[in-house]
């Protein structure tokens, strides 16, 4: 590729984000050839960084948040790359917990745009929106902020995901579930094989997977790559000590040492598993790379960890939780968490989905506990029609022969659906908004009066 040139200079943050989002029609095209060439033209800045690569179906964001909080509390400078964002495009690229500055994003977008447009003229075609986002993130960490570690979340899958361009110091696979089956395969083995693609030769792996077939795939991959594997419930585990609506405490048991009385404020039993995965990752970094963190800072970092949109309470009167349960496993975890952690008389839910999800199996879980289910539509280009969701709900009701079916209401306007939810929720009840993160992000911004909210993937 030729040197950078400035045919088209963008002059504002909004212009830069519009340009990046303008690449969305190029879709998701798995493969690393385009990103390899782009990084090569920039003299491979990613090779100067230490990545903690995190893949999995659910729990990636939470594990990334635990790792980020603990490392920062321990005195390290940390870059965090996650997706999708809840509120604003800049949420994707953080340094020490702060979003990339708008001006910095603009400068980096101007730097990469000529390369992107040049590649678009070749047989490789235009880089995608996600490829450009990854490229900007790498430049941000390698040329602007210089963190000690980059907590690096995959976009989709692992093996062919653009983030897999890096060679991390440790690989983390949170869990495996039925999501993105149109792209990753329709069996647990096939999906696991894609996620296990982030395992690199000789690099330690921490895995929170529990299904025997998933464990088999990851074990085989780690053996082939000569990578040491640390499996949840084998090399490390957690034992619950105390749980209420505000916090939970557990004992971490690892092969290097145990930690008593770990407290987290993230809700649900699955968060103890996510926390244990993060703690084992920290322990491996200690053993392999001489990471130094005082236990006091470690425990404080775990306790102060939050992650927006995951069983997050955003209103007290009435009690309103938001949770991005957008696949069957996420819905199962939500149901489990609500019934084991919260006390309420009636449960009222608003739910909105996007097209390419497993609506039937997700709704099957939700229908077992809802007193009221308000079906709505996220303000997003591939929103699932709420009337079609109602048809799925009725079908499931007949199939399961539910004794007490929830009161199902269709309200396509999500703001009206939210207003109705808040109106019908009594002080002794619990209100929940769930489904796609695009709906969760809008509701969160609306309820918390965030004027910075943007729309995108």
Question: What does this molecule look like?
Answer:
This protein is an alpha/beta fold and 457 residues long. 40% of the residues lie in helices and 18% in strands. The chain is built from 15 helices and 17 strands. It has helices spanning 13-21, 33-41, 60-73, 102-120, 129-145, 181-184, 188-195, 212-224, 269-289, 295-303, 328-341, 359-367, 386-400, 414-424, 437-447, and strands at 51-55, 78-81, 93-95, 98-99, 149-153, 170-173, 205-207, 229-231, 236-243, 248-254, 258-264, 312-315, 320-323, 347-352, 372-377, 407-413, 430-435. An eight-stranded mixed β-sheet has the order 4-3-2-5-1-6-7-8, with helices on both faces. A six-stranded mixed β-sheet has the order 12-13-17-14-15-16, with helices on both faces. Helix 1 runs parallel beside helix 4 and helix 4 (102-120) packs across helix 5. The longest helix is centred in the middle third of the chain and has 21 residues, at 269-289. It is globular, with a radius of gyration of 22 Å. The two termini are 29 Å apart. The relative contact order is 0.12. The model has no long low-confidence stretch (mean pLDDT 92).
Question: Given the C-alpha coordinates, what overall shape results?
Answer: globular
Strand order of the largest sheet: 4-3-2-5-1-6-7-8
> Nearest-angstrom radius of gyration?
22 Å
Average pLDDT, rounded to a whole number, is 92
Structural class of the helices, strands and pairings? alpha/beta
Strand fraction band? Answer: 15-25%
How is the biggest beta sheet arranged? 8 strands, mixed
Q: What ranges have pLDDT less than 50 throughout 5 or more consecutive residues?
A: none
Percent of residues in helices comes to 40-55%
Count of DSSP strands? 17
Total count of helical runs of at least 4 residues: 15
End-to-end Cα distance: 29 Å
